[in-house]
Design goal:
Elements: E1 8-15, E2 19-27, H1 31-35, E3 42-52, E4 62-70, E5 76-79, H2 82-86, E6 93-100, E7 104-112, H3 121-124, E8 129-139, E9 150-157, E10 163-166
Antiparallel strand pairs: 1-2, 1-5, 2-3, 3-4, 5-9, 6-7, 6-10, 7-8, 8-9
Length: 167
């Protein structure tokens, strides 16, 4: 018999540049540590409903029991449960920011390291998915399924931050 590693399932909604995913994110250990693990390049979603963001796409919404999403493609990730959101590490200081991504503008409080300044905090923060609290989301497209436009916590893909300014 092999060793059984306990996994957890967290309800999530994910937006990439081309798709919206709703499903259960499978993790080992605290969700915040798992999703930002430097050795991880993909995330496994279970019982997934997905739909393209492109209006008029010939591909319609579909469901799959399992989908692997490349982490670098994630622009916005929302955890549906308070327990999952509480597992996300936060820095000691907040900066109110407007953040622009390819699919939405996001306004909220961005946790930053104490030593980071406004101009270079993205260079200091190396996590692939960054926490934005008290978030308001302004999508550039009509989303195919409900996505929270206000969220206690939203994760933003580091590489998808096009630019930002103070809020």
């Amino acid at each position: 018999m092999g060793i059984s590693i306990p996994t957890q399932r967290h309800p999530v909604q994910i937006l990439t540049q081309t798709f919206q995913f709703n499903g259960g994110l499978e993790t080992v250990g605290p969700a915040g540590n798992f999703i930002n693990d430097p050795g991880r390049t993909s995330l496994t979603l279970l019982d997934v409903k997905m739909a393209p963001l492109t209006p008029g796409s010939p591909l319609r919404g579909l469901t799959r029991s399992q989908i692997i999403v490349q982490r670098e493609t994630i622009i916005l990730l929302y955890f549906g449960s308070e327990e999952s959101r509480s597992s996300i590490s936060r820095y000691p200081r907040c900066e109110p920011l407007m953040i622009y991504t390819p699919i939405a503008v996001c306004r909220g409080d961005f946790y930053v390291p104490a030593e980071a300044n406004f101009r270079d905090f993205l260079n200091v923060m190396k996590a692939p998915l960054l926490p934005l609290v008290n978030a308001r989301i302004f999508p550039f497209v009509n989303l195919p399924a409900p996505f929270p436009l206000e969220a206690e916590l939203l994760l933003i893909g580091h590489e998808h931050v096009l630019f930002y300014h103070d809020a």
